[in-house]
Design brief:
Order of helices and strands: HHHHHHHHHHHHHHHH
Strand content: under 5%
Shape: globular
Number of strands: 0
Structural class: mainly alpha
Largest sheet: none
Distance between the termini: 8 Å
Amino acid sequence: MKLWIKYLIGIVLGVLLAFVFPANSEPVMLAFVTEIIIRFGKYIIVPLLFFTAMTAVDKLREAKIILKTGLLSVSIIIISTVMFALIGLASILIIQLPRIPITADRAVETATLNIAELVRALFPSSPFETFINGTFLLPVFLFACFSGGACTGDQIAFRPIVTLVDSLSKLCYNIATLFTELLSVGMIAVMCSWTIRFRSIIVNGTFTPLILMLFVIFIIVAFVIYPAIIHYVCHDPRPYRVLYASLASIFAAFISGDTNFVLPINMRVGKESLGIRRRINGITYPLFSIFARGGAALVVIVCFIVIWRSYVQAIRVDNILWILFMSFALSFLLGGYPSGGPFIALTMLCTMYGRGFETGYLLLRPVAPILCSFAAAFDVLTAMFGSYIVAVKTQMIEHHSTQHFI
């Protein structure tokens, strides 16, 4: 049975199970089980990322295409983020969503992006500390790149290490394969918890237009924009193969709202369905997971303008440009926040703008998990389609028939 079908079955069962519980009450035990499942899904990420990235860097340097791979990945990250920001801005300026009623809620604690701490985390006192933090993946990715690059200095002397690391990468991949299969059962609890929260929001009705708008944008991006890009950039006559291969990743990203949670699924689907070779998988998917947060930029722009219109009607051009630039910039600082990052960026945007908007994000706090779900789904599309483009342009891909997709 296809992996996406297993996930879909788990999702359907989770939705049905949610109606057993009261609409506005998520049982404590269900919340605990959901947290454990999310942790289980991310359990193997750090060793898988480290050994695979280290092997990938060594092989790409040997093939002399590491610079090309890096430049393509960075270019796609920047272009996709700009694209999402412009799509979000155009959508919310064209479509006038209903105002959200102003509340008297007060912020108990304001979320912040501590840039200094993120920079310090890149170079801890000991490189082994990079393995401790399973949330911010950039430090362990950098350590893997440094290690893989160093192994090409003396290929004879480091050949045993390269062989060992390659074997460990395959071992971690096999473990990740087992975990991604078991997650199909865990999807029941995760989806049940998600549905309980979503149902209460839909019943309220206040945020339904915003949710529908994000859903329509997602459909347009997934079924029109990205397939068209694949068709013209990669000269692929069947671009929807990439979308079909991405279904399991999209499901997992949407119900978890966590970009790290879906990383092992992306790497497995990319290899076994799309035929992307491991040396590309080990570089592109971590980079996209950490930096390609265009979905967050889109959501932040849409939400901030919705908040703005809930307070005032007119928006000046200079304000629009400021919102566009700041949302774009903040999206690159969310690598340490794989879950909840878009709402943190929205909080920061409201705080930086000031002028009475400091607590404007509280208007959207009830719908924050759903907003993060959409952002994660957008970001998965970028990771899957972006990695496919890099693999095609570097000729590091073996095309598989759709009947052999996992």
